[in-house]
Write a structure and sequence with these properties.
5-stranded mixed beta sheet, two-stranded parallel ribbon, 236 residues, Rossmann fold, 54% helix, alpha/beta, ProC C-terminal domain-like fold, 7 strands
Length: 236
């Protein structure tokens, strides 16, 4: 997710600095985005105005000690409340953020908790739609908006594959579904999902037949089960 955010910020940030624990991903991102690799977390904290923290939650205390000079921190750590982060970074402005992958194209949703400074607020706003959220609601929000791109991508994949099976060129089928998805998302900004569904599904028509098939196959229940399963996994 940190890589997706970095790609979304490409061209907007004056300089992006990268470091990792030896995976090599920092160097790859720096080369891809025109950034710079630094040798340690301590060096990163000294040079950066804003630090994006993307490590395993179990590593928080170790990494926080290395980032002691950080002035502002954006945490992407799952299942790590704001109070815990504030304890780890007592001298920094800390904000907890849960983005989804569409931040890469600046159309993401970012749930935010904490008192982010103006620079952090400005940088996050570049990546998409920012929603202030109580810390306690982050798990539920993650199960809906954080995981949803994968569920929606699965639906797009299934529809495009069905189109290809019906005789369309595979690339064309995908293009048709992707562009339809983008247009429908824009329409849903101003219209309720039920209204859109009813507008498309004429009584006795082909869309109604498709919706009835989805009901028989348990599509709605499957999506609801996906959200519940994500929540259960996060809360273990």
């Amino acid at each position: 997710m940190a890589a997706a955010m970095a790609r979304g910020w490409a061209g907007a940030a004056e300089t992006m600095l990268f470091t990792d624990a030896g995976s090599g991903r920092a160097a790859e991102l720096a080369e891809e985005l025109g950034g710079k690799v630094v040798g340690s977390n301590a060096e990163l904290a000294e040079q950066a105005d804003l630090v994006v923290l993307a490590v395993k939650p179990a590593k928080l205390d170790q990494v926080a000690a290395e980032l002691g000079a950080a002035r502002a921190v954006i945490s992407l750590l799952g299942a790590t409340p704001l109070e815990r982060l504030a304890t780890a970074f007592p001298s920094a402005d800390v904000v907890r953020v849960m983005p989804n992958v569409a931040v890469e194209v600046r159309r993401g949703v970012l749930c935010v908790a904490g008192s982010e400074g103006p620079e952090a607020r400005e940088m996050l706003a570049l990546l998409g739609h920012v929603v202030e959220l109580p810390d306690a609601q982050f798990d539920a929000a993650t199960a809906v908006m954080g995981c949803a791109p994968a569920y929606l991508a699965l639906a797009v994949e299934a529809l495009a594959d069905a189109g290809a099976d019906a005789g369309l060129d595979a690339g064309l089928a995908r293009e048709l579904v992707v562009e339809t998805t983008a247009g429908t998302a824009e329409l849903l900004r101003s219209r309720h999902p039920t209204d859109v569904r009813k507008a498309v599904a004429s009584p006795g028509g082909s869309t109604e037949a498709g919706l009835e098939a989805l009901d028989r196959e348990g599509a709605r229940a499957a999506f609801e089960a996906a959200v519940r399963a994500s929540l259960e996994r996060m809360r273990r």
